[in-house]
Prior knowledge:
Elements: H1 2-9, H2 14-24, H3 35-45, H4 54-66, E1 71-75, H5 81-88, E2 93-98, H6 101-110, E3 117-121, H7 124-131, E4 142-145
Parallel strand pairs: 1-2, 1-4, 2-3
Amino acid sequence: xxxxxxxxxxxxxxxxxxxxxxxxxxxxxxxxxxxxxxxxxxxxxxxxxxxxxxxxxxxxxxxxxxxxxxxxxxxxxxxxxxxxxxxxxxxxxxxxxxxxxxxxxxxxxxxxxxxxxxxxxxxxxxxxxxxxxxxxxxxxxxxxxxxxxxxxx
Length: 153
C-alpha cells in the first residue's frame, strides 16, 4: 500500500494535468466510421479512459448509444480517466468505486468538478450489491468491470 502513496506523492503535478485534460474532452462524434478517423480524433482530443485504447473507446461508445444506457457504473477507478471519459464523452452519469484508498482520494479530487460522477471507496462486490438495488440506475445501466482482485483487501 505504501507504493500507492509514493506513486501519488511523487507526481503532485498530476492533479493539475488531469484537470486540464478532463476539461478538454468533448462528445464522441457519430460520424467517425473508420479506424483512421477514430485515431485522428483521439490524437486531436487526447482521449483518455478505457485504458487509452481507441477501439475499446469506440466499442463502448457504440454499445452505450445502441443500448440507450442510463448510467455508467465502473469498478476500479484508479485515477479516474474512464469515469471522466464516461461523463464528458458519453454525457453519462457515473458511479465508480476504488478499493485502494490513495487512488480513491486522488480520483475523488481529480473528478470533484464533474458533478455527474460519484466516487466511492469500496470493494467491487459490495459496491455492485449496493448500487444495483437502486431504482435510480434506470432500465439499462452500462457496467464496466475494470477492478482487479487483491488478496490483502
